[in-house]
Design brief:
Helix content is 83%, strand content 0%. It is an all-alpha fold and 88 residues long.
């Protein structure tokens, strides 16, 4: 179990470093923003499942933070892509 949590922690660090590097890139295509948002969703799910301890509880309790994060990421994606659509 300990090594599993260490692997999850290293995955979170890797995803965070990926997000930081993508933030430093000057040319930022739409694909990178989609990857960034998906990485954020994966990080949130890993934190919810393993560090909050919701992996072994009923599905309805696991869905609350997952749906909340999905809604927030969807709203960020809509706000990010609105200026692209308005400029055409």
């Amino acid at each position: 179990m300990k090594y599993k949590l260490e692997f999850i922690w290293l995955s979170l660090v890797t995803l965070s470093l990926f997000a930081y590097i993508m933030g430093q890139v000057e040319y930022f295509p739409k694909l990178f923003s989609i990857l960034l948002l998906l990485g954020t969703l994966v990080k949130g799910q890993l934190i919810t499942d393993y560090f909050m301890g919701l992996k072994s509880v009923r599905l309805k309790y696991r869905l609350i933070p997952t749906l909340w994060l999905g809604i927030v990421i969807s709203l960020i994606a809509v706000a990010y892509y609105l200026p692209y659509e308005a400029s055409y």
